[in-house]
Amino acid sequence: MPPFSLDDFLERHRALELPTNLDTYFAAPERAGTLLELPLNLPEPVVAEIGNALCKLDFNRYPAREAAALRTEIAERLRLPPSHTVLLGNGGLELIDLVLQGVGHGAAMLTLDPDFFMFRRSAAKHGVKVHAHRLEPDFALNTSAFRRTLAETAPDLMLFSNPHNPTSLLFPPCEVERLIAHAPGLVLLDEIYAPFAPEPDAALRLLERHPNLLILRSFSKVGAAAIRLGYLIGHAKVLERFSAWQSSFAVGSLALLAGRAILRHAALVDAAVRQVTEDRDTFIADMQVLPEVEALPSRTNFVVARFKGLNVAELHDRLAERGVKTVPLAGAPALAHCLRFGIDSRKRNALTLEHLAAVLRTP
Ligand SMILES: Cc1ncc(COP(=O)(O)O)c(C=O)c1O
Predict the structure, then answer these.
(1) 250 touches 91 (CB < 8 A)
(2) Among the CATH numbers 3.60.9.10, 3.40.640.10, 2.40.30.20, 3.30.1240.10, which is that of 44-264?
(3) Contact, 265 vs 75, CB < 8 A?
(4) Which listed residue, 34, 144, 196, 362, has the most CB atoms within 10 A of its CB?
(5) Ligand 1 centre from 219 Cα, in Å?
(6) CATH for 267-361, options being 3.30.450.40, 3.90.1150.10, 3.30.365.10, 3.40.980.10
(7) Which residues 6+ apart lie within 8 Å of 160 measured at CB?
(8) Ligand 1 atom closest to residue 218's alpha carbon, by position in its atom list
(9) Is the CB of 232 under 6 A from ligand 1?
(10) Which ligand 1 atom minimizes the distance to the CA of 165?
(11) pLDDT tens digits for the chain (363 residues)?
């Protein structure tokens, strides 16, 4: 038998054309502050309770009991119907990946163009064919046109984010329900940004009527991106199929105990989220005063601003020189001329707008 050859190994295990593990990319210093985290740490009483729980943790035990407890607590808090349950994962990203792995190689997925870029990456990783329905130039979802695409593509999985990344917009729940009702396969609704929407739990009410609906949530956008904890909500029998693909004990006790403490202090955490939502609305109102800018009506913790006729790459660089981090959006014609602003503390938001006004004043 020939000895191990690194060249042979690399040849046989070719990297995916689109890398799906982007840890290094996200760790780049220029990305810091652009990952749509909350600007503030978890409230102090939550951090203190996590500390206490950590001191009492049985580090020698597998996390089965903690996981079961958190699943029950989430189901109770969201008042899920008895037919439905929760599958925990190592962040929303793991669960997106799991669903694409579960629908399987050769299956077809229908998503939106544009939508969260990791959907396509997970599909590529698992050999799932991607169809994408293009949003209207104003980013509206034309439901009759979408239903035609659904009929033409008959996807095994329909997957989109709502509130929507990258546009920050919310598709109305009644329109979403019409699409779910016409989907021939599963529907995964990525609701990572639901906490910033006016009716965060509107889609949960659809679960009982639509056993094909899965909803994705995460602790990342409520101040706990560090713990990597997300969950899928769905019919117990459907989730069982996906959990079969997950590694055992996928979420460790440290994340689970933090998740449980966050739920126990839901009122404090909700207040922090509400603050960001209010600051976002103030940011948009103040931004609208600048004649060169059209800010989209965000239902997320970021704001998409369109600068018609301006070079956004240059605008991005000039803001960066002043310490203001933005992300130029790309990937769809309607996104050209758009910059993404993450909502920060009130003080930093005001500073961002001052810098923006100054940059726009001096061409
Ligand atoms: C639409 C969407 N889905 C999923 C994720 C990933 O969530 P998590 O941090 O829970 O993996 C993000 C992260 O920004 C996102 O924007």
Answers:
(1) no
(2) 3.40.640.10
(3) no
(4) 196
(5) 10
(6) 3.90.1150.10
(7) 111, 112, 115, 171, 189, 190
(8) 10
(9) no
(10) 1
(11) 889 999 998 888 887 777 888 888 888 888 888 999 999 999 999 999 999 999 999 999 999 999 999 999 999 999 999 999 999 999 999 999 999 999 999 999 999 999 999 999 999 999 999 999 999 988 999 999 999 999 999 999 999 999 999 999 999 999 999 999 999 999 999 999 999 999 999 999 999 999 999 999 999 999 999 999 999 999 999 999 999 999 999 999 999 999 999 999 999 999 999 999 999 999 999 999 999 999 999 999 999 999 988 999 999 999 999 999 999 998 778 888 999 999 999 999 999 999 999 999 987
Distance 192 CA to ligand 1 centre (A): 6
Distance (angstroms) between ligand 1 centre and the Cα of 317 equals 26
Return the domain boundaries, the chain. 44-264, 267-361
The answer to whether the beta carbons of residues 186 and 214 sit under 8 Å apart is yes
Whose tokens are 């933090």? That residue is 258
pTM of the predicted model, to two decimals? 0.96
Whether ligand 1 lies within 6 angstroms of the CB of 200 is answered as: no
DSSP structural state of residue 206: G
223 Cβ closer than 6 Å to some ligand 1 atom: no
Helix/strand/coil (H/E/C) assignment for every residue in 309-347:
CCCHHHHHHHHHHCCCCCEECCCCHHHCCEEEEECCCHH
- In terms of DSSP bridges, do strands 294-295 and 129-134 run parallel, antiparallel, or are they unpaired? unpaired
